[in-house]
Amino acid sequence: MCADLLWYVAYGSNLARDRFACYLSGGRPEGAMRHYNGCRDPRPARAEHPTMLPGGVYFAFNSLTWGGGMAFYDPELPGRTAARAYLVTREQFCDVLAQEMRREAGEDADLSVALATGRQRLGPGHYETVLKVGERDGYPMLTFTAPHGVGRAVLNAPSVPYLTMLARGLRDAHGWKSGQIAAYLRACPGARDVWSEPAIAALLRRGAAAAASAFSAFRPGPGLPLEPAAG
């Protein structure tokens, strides 16, 4: 086994393999307003597998890439989080994290605290808190999220293109049907008071354009600033 490898555990838009590929090799994801430069090492993940984490996902703040709220993982929320683990190098993990924070790839963060204690805050940004969520095949499983839980977040509903990408990832990674995907995403704080299950299900059945017409109530949260350091 290579000590340089780890599992990056995605629970948001990176559930979709083609979206995650833009972090690795560069490109612009479908529906996004941003081009990614990619990692120093652009090779695809060595392996991948679907997984479930204890806790839940919530949507908060405002994304420059997608518009609307972004997905964050809170291990203290009730329920289970659907995720996808990618076996990548430590260098690739650090480069993905840097791009998530709108920085240039190229700096290798010291992850020793996260590996030893399960949690490490690398900086003040929304996605700069690294969590160790388990191990598989002898390699640590790491993800990143906000430094706080849902109780301190400014909730905001996710946009049509963002939910479309999440729905695609859940279908591809876990094989879920549209009804199960809709129920899962609609239950997340930040989405539950704005999106309906039928509108989310339309993302898979007929695409984002049809979902937009079914979803007439969506508005980004009032007074929420765009976050330049968030994906």
Structure description:
- By secondary structure, the protein is α+β, with helices and mostly antiparallel strands.
- 29% of the residues lie in helices and 23% in strands.
- It is built from seven helices and eight strands.
- The chain has helices at 17-25, 90-100, 112-117, 160-174, 178-186, 197-205, 208-214; strands at 5-10, 47-54, 56-60, 70-74, 80-89, 119-121, 129-136, 139-145.
- Strands 2-5-1-8-7-6 form a six-stranded mixed sheet. A two-stranded antiparallel ribbon has the order 3-4.
- Residues 214-231 have low confidence and may be disordered.
Structural class: alpha+beta
Instruction: Name the beta content range.
Output: 15-25%
Biggest beta sheet attributes: 6 strands, mixed
Mean pLDDT: 88
In oligomeric terms, what are we looking at? Answer: single chain
Tell the overall outline.
globular
- Total strand segments: 8
Q: Percentage of helical residues? A: 25-40%
Task: Going across the biggest sheet, name each strand in turn.
Answer: 2-5-1-8-7-6
If you compute it from the alpha carbons, what radius of gyration comes out, rounded to the nearest whole angstrom? 16 Å
SSE pattern: EHEEEEHHEEEHHHH
How far is it from the N-terminal to the C-terminal residue, by CA? 32 Å
State the low-pLDDT regions, or none. Answer: 214-231
Number of H/I helices: 7
